[in-house]
Amino acid sequence: MMRISVRNGIPFTSFFGSVPTIIRPYSSNHSNKSIDFENVKCLNDAITLFHQMVRRNPLPHVVSFSKLFKTTLNMKHYSDVISLFQEMRILGIPIDGYILCSVINSYCLMHRADYGFSVLSIYLKNGIPFNDVTFTTLIRGFFAENKVKDAVELFKKLAREKICEPNEVMYGTVMNGLSKRGHTEKTLSLLRLMEQGNTKPNIVIYNIAIDAFCKDGNLDAAINLLDEMKRKGIPPSIVTYGSLIDGFCKLGHWEKVKTFFSEMVNLNIYPNVHTFSIVIDGLCKEGKVKDAEEVMNHMIEKGVDPDIITYNTIMNGYCLCGQLDRARRIFGIMIDKCIEPDIISYNILINGHCKKKKLTEAMQLFQEISQKGLKPDVVTYNILLQGLFEVGRIGFAKKFFDEMLSTGPLPNLSTHNTLLNGYFKHGIVEEAMSLFNKLERKTEDTDIAFYNVVINGLCKNGKLDEAHTIFQKLSFIGLLPSVRTYTIMINGFCLEGLFDEAKDVLRKMEANGCFPDNVTYNVIVQGFLRCSKISEMTTFMKEMTGRGFSFDATTAELLVNVLRENPSVLDMIPELHSKNKK
């Protein structure tokens, strides 16, 4: 019989005894020469071949079935892999570990790792041993569904009960899953655990840990690991240097970037297109797009051809700087180099034109997408919708959204937030609330950012009571207000001169473990300044500076205006008065 037990929320199947099964014999010939896998180009081909194979007597060898499963899986027809497997079971065709692993992988790729887990009982029933690939696939599936606890618990169970000896790939899968979700210290702990066992960390393992520290901005820890692996005789790879270069680019430490480039070349590790693209991206994000283009020209001189990611990065850099002509020039160079623009290329250019409020040119680019055989994605529609609202073309935005519903991709949460923002911005509150009520009924279409848009829109349109009602019900629907949520509500009260209510929200915010940030304090101080409540403003200014926050440009401008109209106010603000004397 089978028994399924649950430990720590993870189902685990154990099997006792055996069930007699009538099975059909395989051919003893392992060759697949008589089976034409080359002509399997689509799902129908795979299904047709499967039915031809099961009618043979004797059956083709299990390796042939495994190969067919692999082909179907590679075509991303995951549910059909499971259907073929179920048909094999009904027909009494024997299976092997590779086929079972394909089924588990299919479930995991469909984000149903729990169903994949249930396949383990079939291994036991058929006397097929588990292996590291089986469990690595499941662990990867749990991480894909963000079930970090289940993934870690499964890994611990395997090691603790010696069900399967984790190898480098399994360790790497767990470490990668943890690091991608910000669990850097746990990632490092696993590396240390490996050092104590039979499976020692290799370059791949070190690269995962180094990349995690680089993503965290902890470059000192990353370099310490680099030095450690060098002492152990593990030479760094291009991936190692890519992570370090990316980390230092994000911090703007360009001298360090040059140092690592030189170190790479000295070790006969030559930068590839990905390495150069990291530097180009870093320069673009700092607004140094001309320098980024020079790096691209340098890589071409070194015999490294830019790819579409490189060109898109530079185009985006120019668009962010408002230099649309230069962005279009890069677009043209890319086409001249026989690199076809993708939808990301068009989205970058469309976004650039929308930011400059050049909607006619943006719509021309949108029309060009289909002419080039591409399809606009949800990002394309979201960019244009926002652009249309920005220039006040409300009617056109509504028609464009209707077009999206009829012929385009399905709207996502960002689409709905863009619509709500647009409606509220132009005072179309009734239509905004109608959409809000419709979407709120579909809980999967809402998150705290969605509610922030609505609460903010209502506050800006003088509907403070309605905004506060929605704010108060957040905890009842299982959503925790964010710092932005509280700040929006505080700002709403300040705009209406209700400072006691604003201070009440601030204190409740802290009591709930959500601490105010620089924006929160600036919002409160601005409210006091607008109403010339200098004494209250001074109190909050002290609290603000005590927490390491400072005035932003809007607050500073308001304060200057107040001082210009009434210079004696300076005497009421000790901090500013003492600084002025110095």
TrEMBL record:
Keywords: Repeat. PROSITE patterns: PPR. InterPro entries: PPR_rpt (IPR002885), TPR-like_helical_dom_sf (IPR011990). It comes from Anisodus tanguticus. One of its GO terms (molecular function) is mRNA binding. Gene3D superfamilies: Tetratricopeptide repeat domain (1.25.40.10). The lineage of its organism: Eukaryota, Viridiplantae, Streptophyta, Embryophyta, Tracheophyta. PPR repeats lie at residues 131-165, 167-201, 202-236, 237-271, 272-306, 307-341, 342-376, 377-411, 412-442, 447-481, 482-516, 517-551. This is Mitochondrial PPR protein. Pfam families: PPR, PPR_1, PPR_2. NCBIfam families: PPR (TIGR00756). Belongs to the PPR family. P subfamily. The keyword Repeat applies.
